[in-house]
Amino acid sequence: MKLHSFYTYTDDDGKETEVCVGDDRNMYINGKKIVTESKLELSWWVNVAAVFAGIGAFGSFGLELLKVLKWIGG
Q1: Distance, CA of 63 to CA of 73 (rounded, Å)
Q2: Which pLDDT tens digit goes with each residue over 36-66?
Q3: How far apart are CA 67 and CA 61, in angstroms?
Q4: FRET partner for 11 with CA separation of 20 to 30 A, picked from 22, 43, 51, 66?
Q5: Would the pTM count as exceeding 0.85?
Q6: Which of 25, 32, 65, 29 is nearest to 74 (CA)?
Q7: Cα–Cα distance for residue pair 25/6, rounded to 1 Å
């Protein structure tokens, strides 16, 4: 398997860190696989809040678009 480096960082002490993506589509730091097997689960109220935030953002965009098109006063 080949690793494809896309970011290299050298800190003040001269230590080099290399971030790569392997042919298996996993990420690696200094040749070691990053394990990300635990899933993030949100509470029901966080999901509801995210939906309301999305609706609010879309509604705000719609109102501003109508103002720009001069279909409503503002």
Answers
A1: 10
A2: 777 778 899 999 999 999 999 999 999 999 8
A3: 10
A4: 22
A5: no
A6: 65
A7: 13
Asked if residue 18 lies in contact with residue 27, where contact means CB atoms within 8 angstroms, the answer is: no
> Rounded distance, CA 37 to CA 54, Å?
28
Predicted pLDDT of residue 32 = 92
Distance CA 26, CA 35 (A): 9
Q: Among candidates 10, 9, 7, which has minimal Cα distance to 20?
A: 7
Look-up: residue for tokens 């109508």? 66
CB 30 within 8 A of CB 7: no
Rounded to an integer, the average pLDDT of 24-31 is: 90
